[in-house]
Specification:
CATH architecture of chain B: Up-down Bundle
CATH topology of the largest domain in chain A: Ctag/Cox11 (Pfam 04442)
Number of helices of chain A: 2
Oligomer: heterodimer
CATH superfamily of chain B: Cytochrome c oxidase-like, subunit I domain
Subcellular location (chain B): Cell membrane; Membrane
Strand content of chain A: 25-35%
Main location (chain B): membrane
Order of helices and strands of chain A: HEEEEEEEEEH
CATH topology of chain B: Cytochrome C Oxidase, Chain A
Structural class of chain A: alpha+beta
CATH class of chain B: Mainly Alpha
Structural class of chain B: mainly alpha
Shape of chain A: elongated
Catalytic activity (chain B): 4 Fe(II)-[cytochrome c] + O2 + 8 H(+)(in) = 4 Fe(III)-[cytochrome c] + 2 H2O + 4 H(+)(out)
Number of strands of chain B: 0
Helix content of chain A: 25-40%
Pathway (chain B): Energy metabolism; oxidative phosphorylation
GO molecular function, one term (chain B): oxidoreductase activity
Chain lengths: 199, 544
């Protein structure tokens, strides 16, 4: 009987230990899921894999312009369901040499009859090119406000580095306009009406 | 719990303060509804899980039939597209989280203590709690269908921003429901691990455990590893929707692709959570009816463990078209194909077990054999999808729908049916009506193949998934699929009939109900009394 009692108490201790370890693993995995968010960002910034580019201005690097090589840079602008703005670019594509600073004008126009805030979010493809695209000045660094009917032209100044992989001959830069939340309250209600129609 | 404990045991007393929940409750269980609400018995809780999952199987099935009825002909006939989207979403969510997962947990509750010679689960009260969370979760989830704006309509994978920026207002309820269901699975998994690791009959080593126990142990580890990730993802969604964060919103510096990475980091192990216990069931049934021991038991265990480990390294094969770099495409393509190796080991082991066996074809065996054949078809279409360049064509077409229904319906669901027919004599003391069971089997096999086989062709021809209307050239395939779906759906009523008849009477089953069945559960009487193995059995290793 004593033996059996001892067995059962050993079993209890074992169960407690197993449960304790399982809970530790659970908490760890929950934390890990959240840790993946900054890890993903860091990983993508180092590798440039998700086409994100630095959202702060970088200094112009004086280096020789590599005139032996041409790279086509294309620009695509996209509006957003929640923001009644139009975004245009002066030219759809430019051919540049690595190292050569280039300026391209973008025009924003607010087509509604009220002022609102918006932001253009960039994405680069192929994503391998994103670490090699240096922006000295960009409208995408900050949120912007446009008055009703206002039209604004802002330049993008960029430079491609010499380290741009040789197999990349075309880079596409996409800007998508987004409304800035909380600063435009009436727009969020418009947005929800679009639910379901996006498939 | 532990009714044989001497009353003076210090540990036992330190944790029991709830009045009347100790020993007397075992001898005079409360009657009526309270008996089921308060039960801590693994067999009763197992039955509750199984009944709940069967009800949900029918609810999810009705949603599927709404989809198939709409797709019977091109054009919009029965439902509007918004409701159609809610049906595809709810069908997926209910079948995954409310039908297949609870069915396996129910089988685990019933059979794991019996198969390892334990008196009950390690944490019986927690067991009760984890079951009763489920009806709460899914009542909440189903109630969203009646809310303004409708229920979830973004697909069962709830990709952001469809499930955040463009989601219906009921999405917060969906998140809460999924949280509750997730907690239920986690508690169930902890309980199963604690039971298997600590409560085996004296003398039973890990490598003596029946394969159903092994596969469930590994499944429980997967659940512990990935359910918290799901909880994290839906918490981020909740914050994006309600608290102005931007985890998945590009406008605020987040990334919608991050959602897909996190979701599939949970989602891929999740699909193995839904199939590993099925492997275990089939590995128990095939040796019984082939009257031979399982071929390659250790390799089965190692194969299951390798599948589980590999499942953490393949998630991005669901995302080949989001714009992964070439290196990632190749890595995830090869790692995915690698899974075919341990899976192949299992298939060949089952076939080798059958080789020169004296096979009889009772209903559990029929379902298991159909599982082996049809699951392999699903596995092969999975291999096709793993080829990254080909996936660019297959992605989000009916080919994918055909693939995962082949692994889940004649895979997971057939295994659950096989398990039910196999263990019904143990549960009820009666054999199920074999003639009706065979009718159920043949109608199901024909129905399943008629439903899902044409979907391969529709998908290869370019029919996208999750659409209420389609181009005319897909009409014939869809009509066949819809006929098959209704055949399959209605033949499941036969299953209910068989179960009800079996509970009420039938041919009496002896303790060892099947001639070739040697696991510990067949040493207790049929039907299994409420309390079994209160004194641990002497486990004798089969001498072969």
């Amino acid at each position: 009987m004593n033996n059996e009692q001892q067995q059962i108490s050993e079993q209890r201790v074992g169960i407690r230990r197993t449960v304790g370890r399982s809970i530790a693993a659970l908490v760890g995995m929950f934390a890990f899921a959240f840790a993946l968010v900054p890890l993903y960002d860091v990983f993508c910034r180092i590798t440039g894999l998700n086409g994100k580019v630095d959202t702060t201005a970088q200094a112009f690097v004086h280096e020789n312009v590599d005139e032996s090589r041409y790279v086509t840079v294309q620009f695509i602008t996209r509006g957003s369901a929640g923001l009644p703005w139009k975004m245009d670019v002066e030219t759809q594509q430019v051919r540049v040499h690595p190292g050569q600073p280039t300026e391209v004008d973008f025009t924003f126009s607010n087509q509604s009859d009220q002022s609102n805030w918006g932001r253009a979010v960039p994405s680069v493809s192929p994503s391998e090119a994103s670490p090699h695209l240096r922006k000295m000045s960009c409208f995408c660094f900050a949120e912007q406000k446009l008055q009703a009917g206002e039209k604004l032209t802002i330049p993008l100044v960029f430079q491609l580095t010499h380290e741009l992989p040789a197999e990349i001959s075309t880079i596409t830069l996409v800007y998508t306009l987004y409304p800035v939340k909380n600063k435009v309250s009436q727009l969020s209600s418009q947005q929800t009406q679009h639910a379901g129609g996006t498939i | 719990m532990a009714p044989k404990l001497p009353p003076t045991h210090p540990l036992e007393h330190s944790v029991t303060t709830v009045a009347g929940s100790q020993a007397p409750a075992h001898h005079a269980p409360p009657r009526g509804i309270l008996r089921w609400l308060l039960t801590t018995n693994h067999k009763e809780i197992g039955s509750l899980y199984l009944i709940f999952s069967l009800i949900m199987f029918f609810i999810g099935g009705i949603f599927a039939l709404v989809i198939r009825a709409e797709l019977f002909q091109p054009g919009l006939q029965l439902v509007n597209p918004e409701f159609f989207n809610q049906m595809t979403t709810m069908h997926g969510l209910i079948m995954v989280f409310a039908a297949v997962m609870p069915a396996f947990t129910g089988l685990a509750n019933w059979m794991i203590p019996l198969q390892i010679g334990a008196p009950d689960m390690a944490l019986p009260r927690l067991n009760n709690f984890s079951f009763w969370l489920l009806p709460v979760a899914f009542t909440l989830l189903l109630s969203t269908l009646f809310m303004p704006g409708g229920g979830p309509n973004f697909g069962w994978t709830f990709y952001a921003p469809l499930s955040t920026t463009y989601a219906p207002p009921s999405t917060t309820f969906f998140i809460l429901a999924l949280h509750i269901a997730g907690i239920s699975s986690i508690l169930g998994a902890i309980n199963i691990i604690a039971t298997i690791l600590n409560m085996r009959a004296p003398g039973m080593r890990m490598m003596d455990m029946p394969l159903f126990v092994w596969t469930w142990l590994i499944t429980a580890f997967l659940l512990i590893a990935v359910m918290p990730v799901l909880a994290g993802v839906i918490t981020m969604m909740l914050m994006d929707i309600n608290f102005g964060t931007s985890f998945f919103s590009a406008a605020g510096g987040g990334d919608p692709v991050l959602f897909q990475h996190l979701f599939w980091f949970f989602g891929h192990p999740e699909v193995y959570i839904m199939i590993l216990p099925a492997f275990g069931i089939v590995s128990v049934i095939i040796p019984t009816f082939a009257r031979k021991p399982l071929f390659g038991y250790p390799s089965m265990v190692y194969a299951t463990a390798s599948i589980a480990l590999l499942s953490f390294m393949v998630w991005a094969h669901h995302m080949f078209v989001v714009g992964l770099p070439l290196a990632a495409e190749l890595f995830f393509m090869y790692s995915t194909m690698l899974i075919a190796v341990p899976t192949g080991v299992k298939i060949f082991n089952w076939i080798t077990t059958l080789f020169r066996g004296s096979i009889s074809f009772e209903s559990p065996m029929l379902f298991s054999l159909a599982f082996v054949v049809l699951f392999t078809i699903g596995g092969f279409s999975g291999l096709m999808l793993a080829i990254s360049p080909a996936d660019f064509q297959y992605h989000d077409t009916y080919f994918v729908v055909a693939h995962f229904h082949y692994v889940l319906v004649p895979g997971a669901v057939f295994a659950i049916m096989a398990a039910a027919y196999y263990w019904l004599p143990k549960w009820t003391g009666h054999y199920p009506n074999e003639r009706l069971a065979q009718w159920h089997f043949w109608l199901s096999v024909i129905g399943v193949n008629l439903t899902f086989f044409p979907m391969h062709f529709a998908g290869l021809a370019g029919m996208p998934r999750r659409i209420p209307d389609y181009a005319l050239q897909f009409a014939d395939f869809n009509m066949l699929s819809s006929i098959g779906a209704f055949l399959f759906g209605f033949s499941q009523l036969l299953f209910v009939l068989v179960v009800v008849l079996c509970v009420r009477g039938g041919k009496k089953a002896p303790a060892q109900a099947w001639e070739g069945a040697w696991d510990l559960e067949w040493t207790v009487p049929s039907p299994a009394p409420l309390h079994t193995f209160e004194t641990p059995p002497d486990f004798k290793r089969p001498t072969l």
